[in-house]
């Protein structure tokens, strides 16, 4: 939830391009690189340092640092200047995962053990599936699993991008609220 709150925190209602073109103080502060997204993260974490707002206080220093890094990475991913680069990276990771999944090398990158089971399940005939349906893995088990922190963050970045862009499908009344 915090990622969604932070991603537009303190938004001035202008675009990054406008801020850069007009040498707005936010653009100057962040060297013309994602001034809004950098501002959202910095302002939100600054606010959280105020008395009574530091909900991260119970976390260890390491947990706080990890959480802050994750939030910043996700918020920066909402900059539309990064859109095609991020999509390309995501597509490449999943194409490689799909290639490895279907190769002779085994279970496949990003698919975990359940992915290997799913490959074998796909090869069954419809009669076989009907007979073994009680032992078929759930959809959650079949979902690709990130292999490392980089893949996990990339997946989370794609989720927040989808949520950020999803509002475009809503009516004007939603935007007014």
Search tags:
11 helices, 177 residues, globular
Provide an overview of this structure.
The chain is mainly alpha-helical and 177 residues long. The chain is 63% helix and 0% strand. It contains eleven helices and no strands. Helix 5 packs across helix 10 and helix 6 crosses helix 10. The chain starts with a helix and ends with a helix.
Strand-helix topology:
Layout (H helix, E strand, L loop, with lengths): L1 H5 L9 H6 L3 H5 L5 H14 L12 H16 L6 H20 L9 H12 L2 H6 L7 H4 L6 H18 L5 H5 L1
Helix pairs in contact: 4-5, 5-10, 6-10
Biggest β-sheet strands, sense, barrel: none
What does the overall shape look like?
globular
Give the structural class.
Answer: mainly alpha
Mean pLDDT: 76
N-to-C series of helices and strands: HHHHHHHHHHH
Count of individual beta strands: 0
Helix content: 55-70%
> Low-confidence stretches at least 5 residues in length (pLDDT < 50)?
104-133
Strand content range: under 5%
Distance between the termini: 19 Å
Radius of gyration based on Cα positions: 21 Å
Number of helices: 11
Brief characterization of the structure:
This protein has helices at 2-6, 16-21, 25-29, 35-48, 61-76, 83-102, 112-123, 126-131, 139-142, 149-166, 172-176. With 177 residues, the protein is mainly alpha-helical.
């Amino acid at each position: 939830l915090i990622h969604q709150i932070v991603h537009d925190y303190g938004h001035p209602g202008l675009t990054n391009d406008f801020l850069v073109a007009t040498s707005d103080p936010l653009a100057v502060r962040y060297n013309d690189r994602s001034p809004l997204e950098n501002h959202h993260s910095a302002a939100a974490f600054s606010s959280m340092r105020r008395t009574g707002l530091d909900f991260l206080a119970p976390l260890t220093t390491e947990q706080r640092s990890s959480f802050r890094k994750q939030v910043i990475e996700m918020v920066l991913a909402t900059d539309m200047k990064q859109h095609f680069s991020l999509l390309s990276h995501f597509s490449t990771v999943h194409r490689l995962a799909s290639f490895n999944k279907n190769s002779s090398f085994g279970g496949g990158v990003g698919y975990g053990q359940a992915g290997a089971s799913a490959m074998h399940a796909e090869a069954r005939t419809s009669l076989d599936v009907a007979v073994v349906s009680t032992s078929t893995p759930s959809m959650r088990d079949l979902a690709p699993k990130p292999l490392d922190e980089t893949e996990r963050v990339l997946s989370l970045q794609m989720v927040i991008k989808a949520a950020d862009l999803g509002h475009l499908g809503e009516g004007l009344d939603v935007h007014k609220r």
